[in-house]
Amino acid sequence: MMPENKFLQEAAENFRYLLDRGYPRKPSLELVGNRYQLNADERHLLHRGIFSDEDAKWRKARKIPLYRIRGRDLAIDGYNVIITVEVGLFGRPLILADDGFIRDISGLSGNYRRSEKTEEALLLIFNALKRGRPRHTLFLFDAPISKSGELAREIRIRLKREGIPGNGRAMKVPEKILNGFPGVVATTDSAIIDQSRKAVDLAAHILRHQSKSITLISLKKHPDR
After folding, report:
1. Is the pTM above the cut of 0.85?
2. In Å, what is the CA distance from 36 to each residue of 6, 8, 32, 136?
């Protein structure tokens, strides 16, 4: 899903302009999307990647590198991280958002199914945890998504096998724990980041350390504007 509309960069700048001036997000996106005749994928791209300067700075102030999770409690937004890693491993495009987080633009979250890249993604996540050495790691999965309970159980087995203190849980509303979690959260969900003390972009760290390059889309501000 690569953006092809030649006006997409200009649309992004206009969307950002409205957000910086306090206009509501949803109607602003609709206004800009209609003006530039953006399709659903392009509108989704703007939604995932464009934020006001204030929101971007707020999240950047909460973002920490992987090494700073050492000795701290870590809560992982399970599907958010796994899907992003899988999308990157498949070579599909991700967006480098205004707030510095890398997000998938696949729209798979509600319909997630294991893929040929799931095992590799989990292996990479666990290797990152062994390097980061958090005090305790809690994987949280959305119970309404099919086979979440099985995945949580698999995570618990892997944690024990790897000697990583932690747990895996499937919950109806994981945000009840993720929002305001007293330690560090691993997610790119903007609503969760906004309520976090500290956040780590675990998927981005993993993908940026892979031998093959990942496909990143950036709609950052034009340098001449």
Report:
1. yes
2. 10, 8, 6, 47
